[in-house]
Structure formats: C-alpha cells, structure tokens
Amino acid sequence: MSTKNPIWRRATLAFVLLVSGCTNSTDEPAPSSSSPSPFVSLENQVQLFLNEGAVAAVVQIRWPGGEWSKAYGVRDLETRTPAQPTDRTQIASVTKTMTAVAVLKLVEDHLIGLDDPVNDVIPGFTSALKPPAPITVRQLLSHTSGMPEVNEAGPQDVDFRHALSQKLTMESGLKLAGTLPWPAASVGSFKYSNTNYLALGLLIEELRHTPFNQVMQEEVFEPLGLKNTSLKPVDLTAPGLLHGYATIRGERVDVTDNTAWAGNPAGGATSTVEDVNLFMAALFTGRAISSASLREMKTSPGFAPYGLGIWEHSDGCSKESRHEGLGSLWGHQTTAVSSADGRYQATMTVTVPPLPTGLEDPASEEKRSFMNGRMESTLNEALDRLCMPAR
After folding, report:
1. What angle do CA 178, 183, 187 make, to 5 degrees?
2. Do 231 and 129 contact (CB within 8 A), yes or no?
3. Which ranges constitute the DSSP H helices of 163-216?
4. At what angle do helices 170-177 and 195-208 cross, to 10 degrees?
5. Which contiguous run of DSSP H or E holds residue 313?
6. Are residues 244 and 351 in contact, defined by beta-carbon separation less than 8 angstroms?
7. What is the pTM for the complete model shown?
8. What is the pLDDT of residues 64-119, one digit of tens each?
9. CA distances from residue 130 to 133, 181, 367 in whole angstroms, order as listed
10. Residue 363 belongs to what H/E stretch?
C-alpha cells in the first residue's frame, strides 16, 4: 500500500459518486466579520468530496486567537456513526515529517551530521541495497538518494487482502527494495521513495540504541503533547476511528487494518487533526527542534518543493513559504499546512471514496491524487482568507 504523495505533479481527472453525509462541529466560532466566513469555500469543497463518495472528512484550522474544527460524514460504512472532530485516522506520509524531527535531533546531539554518509552506519544498508555511492542523511531526508521505492518491489496482486496482515519491517523493506536497481545517475536527484525513511528509522534505532517507536514516543509525541498519536497497530473495534475502504473487482474492502505498516517511519502513525496541528505549531515555533535544524528542514536541496521531510507551498500573506505534510493511503488522505512562523495551521483528513487500487486501475491513483491536491488548495485558501486582514 503506497504512502507516496506526488502532489507536485497534479492529476486532472475528476469523478462523481453520490453519498449523503452528516456534519459535526465544535463550538468555536469563526472570526466575526462583515465579510463572508473564511470557511465557506472549504465547506463547499468538503461537500463536493462527500457528493463524490468520500466516507468522512475532518478539518481543524488554527490562527492567532482562534480555532475552528468540523467533522463530516461517518466513521464507517457499517454502523454509519457520525464522524467527530476528535476521531483518529491514519496520517500516512505525514509520519515522515515527525520522523524527520527525530533524525534532526540526532544531528543536534552530535551523533551524526546531515552530510555524513550512512552506508556503514545503518545495519544492513550496504548489503541489502548495494548503494552506488556514499549516501548522506540529508539525501535520505530529502528523497535525493535515488533509492528504489519499496512499494514497487512488493507484491503486485490485484487482491491485496493477504498483504494487509503481513508486517513490513524496516529491515525487510530495505531487502525488498534492494531487489530493484539503484542507478548511480539517480543519486542527487529528487525521487520520492518510502525506502529512504525506512532507512532513517533504522538509523534512529542504531544511534539511540532504542526501538524506533519508543524514540518517537519519548522524543516527539510526549514532549509536544501529542496524546492521540501512536505508531501502534489500531484496534479496529475501538470507537473514534475513521475507517478507510478500497475495492477489489467491485467488492468493497475495509483497509483500516494497519498491521502491515504500523510503526513504519515512512507512514505508520495514527493521529487526529488536532494532534497534527499541535505538532506543526510546535515545529514551526521552534519547540520541536532548534532554529538551525528548522532552517535546514525548510531548505530544499533539489528541484522539487521538498525540504527535509516537508513540502513547500506559497503563502498568500507572507514572503515566506508555508510548509506541509502530505499523506496518502488507499483509504485515507491527510494534508497538514503551517505558516513558516507557526502562527497558522490547517489540517484535513478525508476518508476517500472506495476505489480500486492502482494495481487494478491506474486511473484510481490519479483520482486520489486529484482529491489530495484539492484538499491542499482549499486549506491554503482558507488560511489566506484568515491572514489577509492581518497584513
């Protein structure tokens, strides 16, 4: 199951399905103004998602002195319990931004440098992947190592159900990716690959002498107050969980079981929109890592709008760029946006319409990508509307 997010290459395919949805919101009002609410356009876009077949959507937006959150649709298609703003979801590759923080803390603690090679530091790196050149921490963080994508080396069966319960460890992921070629010419160019972050998870374990999940809990989740964020397998019977779906030859399948990728540093976290916003606020106000590390994180070493674990997006109210975490699984999409100064955040998660995987229908991946792009655009538009009066 892919956590790849090629948002910088926009898909242009729209599709329409029909479904009804419920809405639930907090009591926090939007800013009072004689102008229309800054969230009208966002709510219209979410309603379009529901009309197209999305199961649920949850949004939270934060700005200086205010907060707005709302849930739409249902938690699952079996009980049809209304979704709530506090519901947990799989955040997919937004996990990478959190993993990047733990890696930058290694640098701050002088355990390794950003431009130090990892070939002989990460256990099994050289034997599993056979890198064609010295690969640095920075290259792994920025997807400029040229490393092959683990998902392209995995099973390509249309019926993916057996794979949902097969645990992909960091070690097995590197070995699997190592079955694909790693051309020397690809080193230094941007190529989004989840394998980079599997390697970084092993780097964290090696240098901290502690399991990756424990490091993330002690160095990222707990210090930043992320009480509803976890790398553990989800309890499918627990309340407050958004269920995702895909289809196999027209049959709907619940793909919420994250046994295969729970704990995965590339995309294995479960969280809430509130926790994701808390994380982004802490990161960009300098409470997660040092100002020097944050500068490095914001800087793209390649041609893509990607720094060290975060995407870049224009800010309609500032000369600086906004920064984003983008996550995509077959059943879930999450987009998190923050202003560079950490004063504004917006996170949306959408349980997407039940669609075939790309293994069965490549066009379905374009549909998911197009939806993710619309999420990104509407969140940034809402932030523009909020911050423009303050210019």
Report:
1. 100
2. no
3. 170-177, 195-208, 212-216
4. 140
5. strand 311-313
6. yes
7. 0.90
8. 989 999 999 999 999 999 999 999 999 999 999 999 999 999 999 999 999 999 99
9. 9, 9, 35
10. helix 362-387
